[in-house]
Amino acid sequence: MSLILDHVSYIYGDDTTLAVKALDDVCLNIPDGQFVGVIGHTGSGKSTLMQHLNGLLKATSGSIYFNGEDIYDKDFDMKKLRSKVGLVFQYPEHQLFEIDVFSDVCFGPKNLGLDRKEVELRAYDALKKVGLPDELFYQSPFDLSGGQKRRVAIAGVLAMKPDVLILDEPTAGLDPKGREEILEQIKKLQTETGMTIILVSHSMEDVAKYVDRIVVMNRGKVMYDDIPKEVFRHYKELEEVGLAAPQVTYIMHALKQKGLAVDVDATTIEEATEQICLEILH
Amino acid sequence: MGIIKAENVTFEYIRRDEEGNVEGITTAVDNVSLDIEQGQFIAILGHNGSGKSTFAKHLNAILHPTEGTVWVNGMNTRHEEDVWDIRQTAGMVFQNPDNQIIGQIVEEDVGFGPENMGVPTKEIWERVEESLKAVGMYEFRKHSPNKLSGGQKQRVSIAGVLAMHPKCIVLDEPTAMLDPNGRKEVIRAIRALNDVEGMTVILITHYMEEIIYADKVFIMDKGKVAMEGTPREVFSQVEKLKKLRLDVPQVTLLAYELQKKGLPLPDGILTTEELVQELLDLKNGNLERR
User: Fold this and answer.
1) How many Cβ pairs within 8 Å bridge chains A and B?
2) Measured between alpha carbons, how far apart are the two ends of chain A, in Å?
3) Environment class of residue A15 by beta-carbon count within 10 Å: exposed (0-12), middle (13-18) or buried (19+)?
4) Dihedral through CA B77, CA B131, CA B35, CA A173, nearest 10?
5) Which of A129, B50, B162, B265 has the most other CB atoms within 10 Å of its CB?
């Protein structure tokens, strides 16, 4: 289920004096099953880009193809797109509303017009996928912890059986363990179900650890689009646009500068540990 | 007694079902005692639901302890007549900047606090100016807060508290909603307040990197203080922190992983410079320093 963006631009308040170009000639090709990280400072166009991927915003110019079909074609079924490209907003737990966890997750598939059995199967399956324990299924979603609420909200989107899952900062406000649990769960979803994952994040460490590919947004344009190693090689340029490399990258650069023969491309703790041990112990 | 002293503070609330029947009692803060000196930089860590925000709300009399006592600058928070003085002594900044800004223009927003205190107009403007300068937002004084970035808005929120001339500022996850740059700006502003102005700072956060310069760290779990000490002491206990659903700064974690592989590094390395120096010493076989 590939997504292709072909020269997509979007202008907020077009035709007014306050027009702002939020997306500027964006071209992306996101193939099946990839784990893509999107980074950029506040206002760089990340969220605007995400909202294009499931048709919440319509590009001012350019085209978007989902599975080879032009989503702006008048015969294209936008409703189907929205069930196939699931979007989890920031602080999604604010959108929980049902009396218990299970009913909340049922809400989406129920609205697809599926029969009750299928709805409940999907809800159960989705809650299992996010690793929520069974005993919480009939609790009020408001009695859960922050991390649990967020899982329920993600399950609500998963129950729609999307092919592409977009998450806008799914770990904001969670404690370190909660952050790790959510990301591990998402990674597992990708490897086990082959779902395409698009993760918007402010944590360079998380991006370095989990994703296959990073898209860096700046002023509505794609600044870099490459594997993490390649992107973080440009750490100086990233800093200029309000981003950074993972902390490990800075340590490796500092060591190299002092004359140690380490690979500055290491971006995760595991890679750095290996590199430093090689240099010091041998 | 320091600027803030908590003695055996316990806070319980009653859970009720939909009909209003009592379901049980939750102890959110459980027998916490601490003493904070004027001018200290204190950090409070803890996982979601550990009781740290509930505790923080005791420091300026938003909540009152079920048992025990909190004194702010010598005033008991239970004394109704001192509440205004207490809130002026200990100002609070919350997570979401959008919920804390009310003015149409930055300088009006910052002036809101002192205006409500009945400060003379001329002095209000002086306070607005110095507060905005202290957080590096003076050049934005005529801007609309709506057009600012998250980090800038949060610094305006901090200025709004500063303008009330508190002795102490309590920040409850002020950087949780910010991008890396915004986070850096806010932390820099907070550190400058503490270093330059001598303001007592109590910072609650989930980002371990933000507190390596704190004088003292308290770690909460199930409403209790589970660990306390300097950042170095606390971050030396990697496994214990992980059990408490927390973490250590990336540099500390890397040093810890290297230790596990057999490199003789000291515990609780906090900065890149320290780690680089230690590794260079190892490489050069210059070990007599230890």
Assistant:
1) 109
2) 47
3) exposed
4) 90
5) B162
A282 close to B (CB below 8 A): no
A-chain residues near B263 (CB < 8 A): 276-277, 280-281
Instruction: Name, in order, each residue with C-beta under 8 angstroms of B229's C-beta and a sequence gap of 6 or more.
Output: B216, B217
**Does residue A1 register a pLDDT over 80?**
no
Q: How far is B170 from chain A (nearest CA, A)?
A: 18
Over the Cα atoms of chain A, what is R_g?
A: 20
pLDDT in tens, B53-77: 999 999 989 999 999 999 999 999 9
A99 and chain B: CB distance < 8 Å anywhere?
A: no
Spell out the domain ranges in chain B.
4-230, 249-290
Q: Is the CB of B176 less than 8 angstroms away from the CB of A173?
A: yes
* The pLDDT of residue A101: 94
Contact A279 B261 (CB under 8 A): no
CB contact under 8 A, B149 and A269: no
Tokens, residue B180: 């890396």
- Chain A positions touching B177 (Cβ under 8 A) are 172-173
Band of pLDDT at residue B197, cut at 50, 70 and 90: confident
Strand extents, DSSP E, chain A: 3-12, 20-30, 35-39, 61-66, 69-70, 85-88, 164-168, 196-200, 213-218, 221-226
Contact call for residues B173 and B100 (beta carbons, < 8 A): no
pLDDT tens for A226-267 read: 999 999 999 999 998 888 899 999 999 999 999 888 999 999
What is the pTM for the complete model shown?
0.86
pLDDT (0 to 100) of residue B265: 93
Nearest residue to B143 via CA among B97, B108, B100, B106? B106
Instruction: Give kind and range of the element (H or E) at residue A83.
Output: helix A78-84
Cα A213 to Cα A30: distance, rounded to the nearest angstrom:
10
Q: Look at A177 and B257 and tell me if their CB atoms are within 8 Å.
A: no
B276 touches chain A (CB under 8 A): yes
DSSP, res A100:
S
Give the span between the Cα atoms of B148 and B130, in whole angstroms.
Answer: 20
Predicted ipTM > 0.95: no
> B239: which residues sit within 8 A by CB, 6+ positions away?
none
Check pLDDT > 90 for residue B102: no
Nearest to A176 among B206, B262, B272 (CB): B206
Among B183, B283, B284, B286, pick the best mutation site for testing chain A contact (most A Cβ within 10 A): B283
- Return the DSSP state at B120: -
Q: What is the pLDDT of residues B151-189, one digit of tens each?
A: 889 999 999 999 999 999 999 999 988 888 888 889 999
B4-230: CATH number: 3.40.50.300
Give CA–CA dist A202/A41, Å, rounded: 8
